Amino acid sequence: MSIDEDAGADRFGTTAFYAGLGRAFVAMCALIPVLFGVELLDLATHHRLDQAGGIIPHRLDGLDGIVFAPFLHANLQHLYGNSVPLIITGTFVLATGVRRFLLVTAFIAVTSGLGTWLTASPDVVVIGASGVIFGYLGYLLVRGVVERSWWGIAVGVLVGLLYGAQISGVLPTDERISWQAHLFGLLGGVLAAVLFRRRRPPTGTPTDPVAVPDPAGTGPDPPP
Predict the structure, then answer these.
(1) Which CATH code, of 1.20.1540.10, 2.40.10.240, 3.20.110.10, 1.25.40.890, is assigned to 12-195?
(2) How does 179-196 read in b/e, with b if 16+ C-beta sit within 10 Å?
(3) I need a surface site. Which of 38, 145, 155, 169 has the fewest CB within 10 A?
């Protein structure tokens, strides 16, 4: 599957590139107050939103958490920890097009959420945007390679330097952290980079038949 975007928005140094990056950064920053508003409402209702909208593994009534859990957090500290990585990684994903951003985000959320629902303990409620963040990380690390984009590779290197150490979060090192959401989010991001990559048109291949004159008369003889 290929997603066609404005090529200039992904070309380093162009006006469209800087404009797209700036709009993406503003949009991701604007999302954070919304998440804080949700968390304040959750605190005011004694975490009822967490219980109603979190992923409850192996239970049918916990499947809706695949949609709602990324917007919920255990407390303000949890949300603070996710805010900066979400802004940075989300900005680079969003910069090359809203449509691809929405498709990639939805794919990551479903992959992370469904994987968590299938494999996590049924005694927990899983919430938080970290599964999506790990998905963005996987997407950015791979996108430049599959699209053969030097700019994409540079972004992957930058994000890897900033958050590469967080990859250990895919391992079961802390029972309070859903490593399943991180692991399946990361895998979902890698798959999204392949599925939603921008394919370059082949070079030197004619798209329509072309009639070429034959002045020497060496072509096939006309029918009798």
Answers:
(1) 1.20.1540.10
(2) bbbbbbbbbbbbbbbeeb
(3) 145
